[in-house]
Amino acid sequence: MKRITLLLFLLFSVSLFSQQKQVDELNFTGLKRTKESFLRKLVKVKLNAAYDSIVVTTDIERLKRLPGIASASFELKEKGEGTYALTYDIVENFTIIPGLRISQANNGDFAFRLSVFEFNFLGNNQLIGGFYERDVFDSYGAFYEHPFLFSDKLGIGFSYQNRSTQEPVFFDQGDKDYRFESKILEGNLLFSFDFHNEAELGVSFIDESYDFIGEDPVPGAPFNLQADKFTYRAQYRYVDIDIDYQYFDGVTNEFTGQYFQFLDGGERAEEFLNDFLSLRNDFIYYKKVKERGNWASRVRLAAAFGNEGSPFAPFTLDNQLNIRGVGNTVDRGTAAIVLNTEYRHTLYEKGWFVLQGNAFVDAGTWRNPGENFSDLFSLNTTRLYPGVGVRFIHKKIFNAVFRLDYGFGVSENSTNGIVFGIGQYF
After folding, report:
1. Which of 178, 248, 392, 417 has the fewest CB atoms below 10 angstroms from its CB?
2. Which letter does DSSP use for residue 307 in this model?
3. Nearest to 319, CA basis, from 327, 310, 311
4. Are 63 and 72 in contact (CB under 8 A)?
């Protein structure tokens, strides 16, 4: 009886093994600019190994996250008994993207930002590009990033920015305008541990200055400050998103820690510019709603430690960063809580074009310099802005979402405003 049982078990095992699908051919179709050798290095399917539907599904999602790829699917064809050919069918994005951002500067003048970026440089999803900005003063920057230079898990990035803006600085006697200028040279190591977990380590050298440009200076306040500093940055991202053109479903979480170390500066720099630690966490939730809807929400928590009393606070209240309609750099704080939630609905879709409408609520509160964390829960520091907007989307161009929103301020002394930009707000 034992021999019969053993024989049946062996026959079952052989039968099960013989029924396994073995991938002995891997193909890519639809490639125009993206290099096939790059994708072969990136995907996790292995030749002459058993077919695993979970691995293939993971590959598809990873491919769709690449800037150079708009969509991906697969086909499995039998070649012979137990052997199969796996084909990944790729729909590529156009990835040379110009950008335009228009707003009103703090002095009431017209402000704009022009940029151009290539997100699939040399066919292996390198990023290269730069920007020019006019916001009272001139700013510019250049960026390069190769996430997969050394392997499918390790890459590098570099950037240089020369930024000059008019910024309000908030003293007890009232806010005063300063010209803020910073020259930033940054280098980064980029890590991709697995499909869901990514990280960056970076260091920046920054030449920073503040120059008073207003009238009636605050007694005792500096006319100018200048200091060099190093910034050490660590960032961790968890990404679990299913992307289907304009629809997102899933969650992301991004935590960023930065330590700012000031070097020898000019007169009075040590009095106002202190070494400090900055922590920020963004949690984003996306939910596909039936066939045409998408709900998106972001919660941002931020706090600085070590410079709580400095009027030159690190976190900014701004149209393009956190609350639509509030204006450009209208407030600063040493801690913040921000909630953005919106419902996006596809109003019209044909071929590559999508018209999307949205309704949103942006809310946030800031801790003023020198105040306690309880300041975050004061109505005096709270902003609430509901609003509506439209999106013009090209499905075959990476991040080609032309965004126009109008926010209505409902808090005391609030303003209303239009916000125009490229890409979804979050």
Report:
1. 392
2. -
3. 327
4. yes
Tell me the CA end-to-end span of the chain in Å, nearest whole number. Answer: 66
pLDDT tens track for 17-32: 445 789 989 999 999 9
Q: How far apart are CA 171 and CA 312, in angstroms?
A: 9
- Rounded to an integer, the average pLDDT of 192-203 is 93
How far is residue 107 from each of residues 23, 312, 386, measured CA to CA in Å?
64, 19, 25
Nearest to 182 by CA among 127, 230, 129, 222: 230
Cβ proximity of 145 and 124 under 8 Å: no
pLDDT tens-digit series, residues 138-148: 999 999 999 99
CA distances from 256 to 277, 282, 304, 320 (A): 11, 9, 12, 19
Bridge partners (DSSP) listed for residue 419: 405
Looking at residue 61, what DSSP letter applies? Answer: H
pLDDT score for 10:
44
Per DSSP, the three-state class of 379 is helix
Among 22, 136, 10, 29, CA closest to 78: 22
Structure confidence at residue 217 as a pLDDT band (50, 70, 90): confident
pLDDT tens track for 102-146: 776 555 677 888 999 999 999 999 999 999 999 889 999 999 999
What is the pLDDT at residue 11? 43
**Residue ranges with strand state E in 213-322:** 224-244, 247-265, 276-289, 293-305, 315-317
Rounded-to-integer distance, Cα 383 and Cα 366, Å:
9
**Separation CA 217–CA 215 (nearest Å):** 6
Integer Cα distance of 92 and 31 in angstroms: 7
